[in-house]
Amino acid sequence: MKLKYNVDSILTRRRKKIMNPSFDFRLVLFEKIKIEGTDVISFRFNQELDKLEVNKTPSLFEYTAGQYAYFNLDDVHGDPNDSTRHFTISSSPAENFIMLSTKIRDSPYKQRLSNLEEGDKIDVSAPEGEFILPADYSKPLIFLSGGIGVTPFRSMLNYATEKQLPLKIIMFDSNKNQQNILFKKEFDDWTALNENMKIVYTLSDDKSEGNNNFGTEEEWNGEKGRIDKKMILKHVDTNTLNEAIFYICGPPDMLKSMQSLLEKELEIPKDRIKIEEFTGY
């Protein structure tokens, strides 16, 4: 299901499936990381490209923090969406590897992806997308993230921290329970290093505490409930609210509710809202 927005008044970035994307790059897998308690796996590939028979192929896969690419696998059979998917590049250009992080489903493509081993290769298109950090660092950014939609924000937060960008960022990260908070240790480490960065975690499942199949959760001192006006105003001062650019990424229902929250309840102008819309991840 596609959400429809007024594209003349809101900065909406849709991922459109390209029928025949060009795969000019080949990456080699060197590590798989299963995120405990979730169905998410991160795949890390060497930054150096494997050789392809194309002209002027760069020695490194180059991209901008927040972008995505198409990944093509061999030996995918019976998948209604064929052998190609687009994924956010969840690593950042400041890191020495290329990473994608995704939920593993029962589709033939996802099962083939989950079975990749060290040394296996995957063909990749050139990076795409404009859901990226602004060139002008004078305005603060507020990220609204839901679940696996945090992947472009991981890329941007790492890059801003490693490059010591003079850019104020506040991220609200909503997840069902503590086990589903992706990259939390990294985010906490980066927040300790970056005085311009603040992360507000919230758990949307009221029953998540003390009811976890993966073990006893730690006492939760963060926010509870879905991101709403009260929560935002608690952590964002008036000046920041009036100047900030808002980035939203997450499941379709979250995108719709966050857009309504910003426009109707907080009266944020549409030209200060950026949305990354993609489904089926």
UniProtKB/TrEMBL annotation:
CDD domains: FNR_like. Its cofactor is FAD. One of its GO terms (molecular function) is metal ion binding. It is an enzyme of class 1 (oxidoreductase). Pfam families: NAD_binding_1. Residues 22-134 form the FAD-binding FR-type domain. InterPro entries: FAD-bd_FR_type, Flavoprot_Pyr_Nucl_cyt_Rdtase, FNR_nucleotide-bd, MRET, OxRdtase_FAD/NAD-bd, Riboflavin_synthase-like_b-brl. PROSITE patterns: FAD_FR (PS51384). The keyword Iron applies. Keywords: 2Fe-2S, FAD, Flavoprotein, Iron, Iron-sulfur, Metal-binding, Oxidoreductase. Its EC number is 1.14.12.17. This is Flavohemoprotein.
